[in-house]
């Protein structure tokens, strides 16, 4: 029975992983008492005893945690930004060409970022197929529930006396230096990062990422793009689905789930690519558990909500 340790189980990502795994009988969860959660010696012991350790920590703390591991057999799945573009780390999105085989044997797996997951799922296949040139100047909007901001933002949004401005969607990362941009460009094979506008709104969870294309940016039809997605996503937790809610697309439709859908809308002159998923599911905890399942040789959707 695999021994699993969650370093940082008190955060939103760690809590969701714990909730999913605590119901499973095929795993042994190694738990530190609350008073030892930040004790370096106790964490070192757990990290080295585990078969798989999830790091649900800020970037610097994640780097420190990796430095504490001396056991060459310990597999690390890091949900922070720290290692997503680092050499020697497998990128944890098995639906992309070649990555599932890397994850099967990797001891270091970098879990994708939430916004990045939606963008990469839309763009990487089209770049691979030559539909979108690598030097394209793309723009991306991403709408997320407030749980993506962690405990502090959750408390702000759920406060009874919150600022009325929280009632409307809010754009952030205005300086175009969002921490997900490096992986968005690198994993997609783009020469430059997209112009990226993340938006947080007053609902708990769910994410909707959109990328706009015009005729001069692509060399195919809308139907060609739909076919490309259907052919590309034949296994894993991503699939093509262009159904709507009466002609509208809700960003919270996949709240509580661990899968993702991609779709293409518009016409041959102007195309909107849209991915929908849960920022805490396929955008964080669900993806981490999927990677764990693959690494352990299990059915990759085991214990997930799809």
Distinctive features:
21% strand; 6-stranded parallel beta sheet; 7-stranded mixed beta sheet; Rossmann fold
Q: Mind explaining what this structure looks like?
A:
The structure is a single chain. By secondary structure, the chain is an alpha/beta fold. Helices cover 31% and strands 21% of the residues. It folds into two domains: 2-111 and 284-295, Rossmann fold, CATH 3.40.50.720; 114-279, Dihydrodipicolinate Reductase, domain 2 (2-Layer Sandwich). The chain has helices at 12-21, 40-49, 59-67, 99-105, 114-128, 150-158, 181-188, 222-232, 281-295; strands spanning 2-7, 27-30, 52-55, 75-78, 90-91, 108-110, 139-145, 170-171, 195-201, 207-214, 238-240, 260-266, 270-277. The strands form two sheets. The protein has a seven-stranded mixed beta sheet. Strand 1 (2-7), helix 1 (12-21) and strand 2 form a beta-alpha-beta unit. The longest helix has 15 residues, at 114-128. It is globular, with a radius of gyration of 19 Å.
The tally of domains stands at: 2
CATH class label of the largest domain: Alpha Beta
CATH architecture group name of the largest domain? 2-Layer Sandwich
| SSE order, one letter for each helix or strand | EHEHEHEEHEHEHEHEEHEEEH
Low-confidence region ranges: none
Distance between the termini: 25 Å
Largest sheet: 7 strands, mixed
Q: Count of DSSP helices?
A: 9
The global form is globular
Strand order of the largest sheet: 8-9-7-10-13-12-11
Radius of gyration: 19 Å
Specify the structural class: alpha/beta
| Number of distinct beta strands | 13
Mean of residue pLDDT? 96
């Amino acid at each position: 029975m695999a021994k699993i340790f969650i370093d940082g189980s008190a955060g939103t990502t760690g809590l969701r992983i714990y909730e999913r795994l605590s119901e499973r009988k095929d795993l042994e969860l190694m738990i530190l008492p609350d008073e030892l959660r930040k004790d370096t010696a106790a964490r070192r012991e757990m990290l080295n005893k585990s078969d798989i350790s999830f790091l649900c920590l800020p970037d610097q703390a994640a780097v420190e945690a990796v430095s504490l591991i001396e056991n060459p057999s310990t597999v690390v799945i890091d949900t922070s930004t720290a290692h997503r573009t680092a050499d020697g780390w497998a990128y944890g999105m098995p639906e992309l060409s070649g990555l599932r085989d890397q994850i099967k044997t990797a001891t270091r797996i970098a879990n994708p970022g939430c916004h990045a997951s939606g963008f990469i799922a839309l763009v990487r296949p089209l770049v691979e197929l030559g539909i979108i040139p690598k030097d394209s100047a793309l723009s991306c909007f991403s709408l997320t529930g407030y749980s993506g901001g962690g405990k502090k933002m959750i408390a702000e949004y759920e406060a009874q006396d919150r600022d009325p401005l929280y009632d409307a969607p809010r754009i952030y990362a205005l300086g175009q230096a969002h921490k997900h941009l490096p992986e968005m460009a690198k994993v997609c094979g783009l020469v430059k990062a997209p112009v990226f506008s993340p938006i947080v709104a007053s609902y708990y969870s769910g994410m909707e990422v959109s990328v706009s294309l015009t005729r001069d940016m692509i060399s195919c039809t809308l139907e060609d793009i739909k076919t490309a997605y259907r052919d590309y996503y034949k296994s894993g937790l991503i699939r093509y689905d262009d159904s709507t809610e009466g002609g509208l697309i809700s960003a919270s439709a996949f709240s509580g789930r661990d899968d993702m859908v991609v779709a293409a809308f518009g016409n041959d002159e102007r195309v909107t690519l849209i991915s929908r998923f849960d920022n805490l599911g396929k955008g964080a905890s669900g993806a981490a558990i999927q990677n764990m399942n693959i690494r352990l040789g299990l059915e990759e959707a085991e214990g997930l909500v799809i």
